[in-house]
Design a protein that fits this description.
This protein has helices at about 20-40, 55-70, 90-95, 120-125, 125-140, 155-175, 195-200, 210-220, 225-235, 250-270, 290-300, 310-320, 435-445, 455-465, 480-495, and strands spanning about 10-15, 50-55, 75-80, 100-105, 145-150, 175-180, 205-210, 240, 275, 300-305, 330-340, 345-350, 360-365, 380-385, 390-395, 400-410, 425-430, 450, 470-475. By secondary structure, the protein is of the alpha/beta class.
């Protein structure tokens, strides 16, 4: 994926100096066993380094400062092998700027019932050492992930991996730049927002450029590179004969290849991780980018149509979460419904820009009129999406805060769509069609979303916690009465949240 930097996580074990050097050597050996066991499990997306045992307030402050200052540290995992008096942690945790996971585990899964003595009890004290730590984390209002279970269990390792993926996406946002060609689609509300507030909250910036800046960069692309990329399309996809070399519309395919190369070069040269544009601002372009945008998304760039910079950033984050998995993730729009009782489904699509990472089978390269925008017919990849569990997520600006809305869905089979000339996905919503849509509307969810088969609701929950923003989750347990009450309660909580941290 483009733009991903090296990242690792630190495993920090807490104890206290009163145990003496012999016991602390055993603590260090045990903590190293846990850290190295997790790292060697094959289930963690990124490396986990053992950062040592800390036993005093100064040691804790030092390791927290070093973790915060290390650009390759994506977060810290804390574990109290023994008792570690939590007042020692106040200064260090107050300095820490990295995401935190508190692993409530112990070295051995089973107790040696026949031989257990006080020496064993003193060494293996996570049962109350972690509770002491948990109190202080709560007292400090420390956002953190809590994972419970023996470190060797697959379920524990999978939870840790999910948190790592969320933390990696958060780190990827820090200092990220997203490019906005032109302005927002005229009169559309949800794609607007406070870009200054977003940079303060999330660490990324939105940088605007005129569409002619892109047109000028496209003009600089050598024709030989354009021809070579168009030939690559023919190798990878099922190209409509009218677009193939010698076909009457081949020039349109070449123009799309020039768009892909020009946009890609613009983004790479500017260090951008995503982009947006709008069909209402295409001066200097012959076509709204179709296959170009689809393929750039597949490389890892965030994208959303119509100037929707929030969904650009969210899609990039969700793509980062899925790195190393299937990669199936796309910009999406809830377009229309099948409302037959007992078989209610959402048909998701967009005018052109659905990422081919979610495709099942070989996409077909086609050209069709767009009907809006007043430009030439754009070329696009047409395909059906894969089936299975997925998430649909929206990031909105409520004025006083940001809200992340997530719906757990399942992509399903559907009838053929021979006359629909765009890529598409069809899904069923949890807990059911009516409840999910009512909750989405009540929560203010946008029509643009990040749609992923890799990211899970738990990853998005971890991400919202790390980012310090509101999460509205719509899943199998959602009930409208509780959901409405949660939204009302959240209005008060998020208004006061900064005040109660003191």
């Amino acid at each position: 994926m483009i733009g991903l930097k090296p990242l690792k996580f630190w495993f920090i074990c807490g104890s206290q100096h009163l145990y003496g050097p012999e016991t602390l050597a055993q603590v260090a050996d045990g903590a190293r066993t846990v850290a190295e066991g997790l790292a060697a499990s094959g289930r963690l997306v990124l490396p986990l380094d053992f950062a040592g045992v800390v036993t005093t307030g100064d040691e804790i402050a030092d390791v927290c400062r070093r973790a915060s200052a290390d650009p390759e540290c994506g977060g810290v995992i804390l574990w109290m092998h023994t008792f570690s008096p939590a007042k020692m942690w106040i200064r260090g945790l107050s300095l820490l700027t990295k995401p935190v996971l508190h692993l409530h585990t112990q070295l051995n899964a089973d107790l040696p019932w026949a031989t257990i003595d006080m020496d064993y009890m003193n060494l293996h004290q996570a049962a109350h050492g972690d509770r002491e730590a948990g109190f202080m984390h709560t007292r400090l209002r420390l956002p953190r992930k809590v994972v419970v279970g023996h470190w060797s269990e697959a379920s524990v390792q999978i939870e840790v991996d999910g948190w790592m993926r969320a933390a990696r996406a958060w780190d990827d946002w820090q200092g990220a730049k997203f490019c906005r060609f032109g302005d927002n689609m005229r009169n559309v509300a949800v794609t607007e927002g406070d870009k200054v507030g977003a940079e303060m909250a999330f660490g990324f910036s939105i940088q605007g450029y005129g569409i002619m800046d892109l047109a000028d960069r496209m003009a600089e692309v050598p024709q030989s590179e354009v021809v070579a990329l168009a030939a690559e399309y023919a190798d990878l996809y099922d190209v409509d004969p009218v677009l193939a070399p010698g076909g009457e519309r081949h020039d349109a395919l070449l123009y799309n290849a020039r768009q892909e190369l020009g946009i890609g070069a613009f983004l790479a040269e500017g260090g951008f991780k995503g982009f947006t544009h709008t069909f209402e601002d295409l001066h200097g372009l012959d076509q709204l980018p179709g296959i170009a945008t689809q393929r750039l998304m597949a490389q890892g760039y965030g994208f959303a149509g119509e100037g929707d910079w929030k969904t650009v950033a969210l899609l990039r984050a969700v793509k980062v979460m899925g790195e190393g998995l299937t990669g199936a993730c796309s910009f999406m729009e809830d377009y229309t419904y099948d409302m037959v009782p007992g078989n209610q489904r959402v048909l998701g699509s967009h005018m052109l820009e659905v990422c081919p990472t979610i495709a099942i089978g070989t996409p077909r390269v086609e050209i069709h009129p767009l009907g809006i925008g007043g430009k030439a017919d754009p070329v696009r990849l047409v395909f059906n999406a894969r089936k299975g569990p997925a998430i649909n997520a929206s990031l909105i600006d409520l004025g006083n805060r940001f809200r992340l809305i997530v719906n757990a869905v399942t992509a399903v089979d559907h009838p053929d769509l021979p006359k629909l000339p765009v890529a598409r996905a069809v899904w069923e919503c949890q807990p059911d069609f009516k409840t999910a849509l009512q909750a989405w509307i009540l929560g203010g969810g946008a029509h643009h979303t990040a749609y992923s088969y890799d990211a899970t609701p738990e990853m998005l929950e971890d991400f919202a916690s790390i980012a310090g923003i509101e999460l509205a989750l719509i899943d199998a347990d959602t009930r409208i009465d509780r959901f409405k009450q949660d939204l009302r309660t959240n209005e008060i909580y998020w208004h006061l949240a900064k005040g109660i941290r003191a």
